[in-house]
From TrEMBL:
Protein name: AraC family transcriptional regulator
Free-text function comment from the UniProt entry: Regulatory protein of the TOL plasmid xyl operons. XylS activates the xylXYZLTEGFJQKIH operon required for the degradation of toluene, m-xylene and p-xylene.
The HTH araC/xylS-type domain, residue ranges: 29-127
Domain of life, source organism: Bacteria
TM helices/strands, residue ranges: none
Assigned GO CC terms: cytoplasm
Amino acid sequence: MAHASLIAVSTPVTPTAKTTGGLSPWREKLVKKMILDGLSETLEITRLAEACALSRSHFSRAFKRSTGQSPQAWIRAQRIARAKHLMQSTDLTLTQISLECGFCDQAHFCHLFTHSAGISPFAWRSRVQRAQPYALGAG
C-alpha cells in the first residue's frame, strides 16, 4: 500500500516596513508637530484631518494605525508628559500646569493624570521632588 506523503512548502513572509493604511510620514510629522505646538489649546480632530486633506474618520483610522493610539489618546498622553515635565522642572501650581497643558481645569487634569499615572499629580510631584531634592531651584 502506497502512502501519500504531503510536503508543506512555505514561502518566507517578509514583514512590511510600515503597516499599510497609516499616515504617510509627512502627514504624521505634520500632525504631531501641530499637536505638540498646540497642546495648551483646544485641538480639534477635524482641523488635524483637514491639514492632512483627509476626512475625520479616515484620519483617525490612519493615525491609530501609525501610532497605535487614537488621536485623542495620543494628545492626552502628550499633555500628561508635558505636565510631568513642568511639575519636575518648574514651581508652577497644578492649576497653572493644567491650563498650560490644555486641560479645561485642574479637576479634569487631576482625574486624567491619576488614571494615567496611578497616582495624583500632587503625590507624583512630591515623590519626584523627594527623589531629586535639588531639581527645583538649582542654579
